[in-house]
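Forwarding these from the shared drive since the link keeps breaking.
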Amino acid sequence: MKTTVEISDELFRRAKIRAVTRGETFRQLVQNALQEHLEKDGAASEQKPWMKHFGSLRHLHEESRRIDAIIDSEFEQIEPEDSL
């Protein structure tokens, strides 16, 4: 399949040089690099599936602190029936 991808001139030059030094075409270099990247990414997520979601609830830390403060405040109050 043919496709068009825009990359920076500098990255293109570096990739062409790498392909030549390895004795392969630019196309082969890109295919190999993409395949390695996808395999590495897939292997990492298969080994540690929880890592895919690690930190995704970070935005709730402040809400957790707020709820903890409310709970602490409520438990500090003495109920009349508890003071007997």
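-- next protein --
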Amino acid sequence: MSEPSSAPILEVRDLVTAFDTDSGRMTAVDGVSFDVPHGKVLGGSIRFEGRDLLKLSLEEVQDVRGNDISMIFQEPMTALNPVQTVGKQIAEAILLHK
């Protein structure tokens, strides 16, 4: 059997992510670089508005998710159910978080 490679399983170099908003361009990530070796986990914290999301209870995370943080998928065929109306799906998401 061959030895595992010493090269990282994931390498990220100078990652920049920005979003256009009504207030102008907002840079979310600017020049981030990191490696993840085989068999390792990238640790740290996830902070949103000063709160460490990894230390929240499930109930607290569910309160943040959808109300303060959400995801809009770019591929409509994987984001929306073609059998239901768009309005019903959007209303369902709102009702779940209010």
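Helices lie at 58-64, 76-79, 86-96. The mean pLDDT is 84.

- D.
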